[in-house]
Design a protein that fits this description.
The structure holds two protein chains of two kinds. By secondary structure, chain A is mostly beta strands. Chain A has strands at 4-7, 10-14, 19-25, 31-37, 43-49, 52-56, 59-64, 69-74, 83-90, 99-101, 105-110. Chain A is globular. Chain B has strands at 5-7, 10-13, 19-24, 31-38, 42-50, 53-56, 65-71, 74-79, 88-95, 101-103, 107-111. By secondary structure, chain B is an all-beta fold. Classes of the chains: A mainly beta, B mainly beta.
Chain lengths: 111, 112
């Protein structure tokens, strides 16, 4: 079973700062997901990636398969980015099979 | 606007009662997951289905939990009898093959 570690667990930053959240896993994967969960809210899929880099607005996700590591970056952070960010990996042959989740990074962006 | 729909959103019940949670996956999605989220454990996979067939329910306590997909538009998760330690948020998610996952809003269960 894959072990998924995220860091930091908690992060408080000022509006406008560049944010980096890290995720490492122990066993080779077929895909890695970054998810966002607002307090008391549902879960939204931000990215699914298996190599390289993806960008969506102010969010950038990168993955290094050899090092078993991924990062999620937020540029020009805003208070509405405050949420829990969860890394999840898929071990088997496809992005939608039985995900293993990290514990999440609780991000607070202060105005 | 396609989305995964879960009911009920909130449920408070007494220990020993039966609880049924329902999920309507996005039309055309062939994979459905049930996850549980607690403060202590985070998100855990309980069960998942592909083309309505159960593929993995090893994360589910078999003595009290059951998951079914009676048709392509409905997945159910049943707990009987419920216990206080079952209190959690239960998420349903659906996907298509190797694609992205879409999560429902969750069902928050409190067992007194």
């Amino acid at each position: 079973k894959n072990e998924v570690e995220q860091s930091p667990q908690n992060l408080t930053a000022q509006e406008g700062e560049f944010i980096t959240i890290n995720c490492s896993y122990s066993v080779g994967i077929s895909a890695l997901h970054w998810l966002q969960q607002h307090p008391g809210g549902g879960i939204v899929s931000l990215f699914m990636l298996s190599s390289g880099k993806k960008k969506h607005g102010r969010l950038i996700a990168t993955i290094n398969i050899q090092e078993k590591h991924s990062s999620l970056h937020i540029t020009a952070s805003h208070p509405r980015d405050s949420a829990v960010y969860i890394c999840a990996v898929s071990d088997s042959g496809g992005g939608a099979d039985g995900l293993t989740f990290g514990k999440g990074t609780h991000l607070i962006i202060q105005p | 606007d396609a989305r995964v729909t879960q009911t009920p959103r909130h449920k408070v019940t007494e220990m020993g009662q039966e609880v049924t949670m329902r999920c309507q996956p996005i039309l055309g999605h062939n994979t459905v997951f049930w996850y549980r989220q607690t403060m202590m454990q985070g998100l855990e996979l309980l069960a998942y289905f592909r083309n309505r067939a159960p593929l993995d329910d090893s994360g589910m306590p078999k003595d009290r939990f059951s998951a079914e997909m009676p048709d392509a538009t409905l997945a159910t998760l049943k707990i009987q009898p419920s216990e206080p330690r079952d209190s959690a948020v239960y998420f349903c998610a659906s996907g298509r093959g190797v694609g992205e996952l879409f999560f429902g809003e969750g069902s928050r269960l409190t067992v007194l």
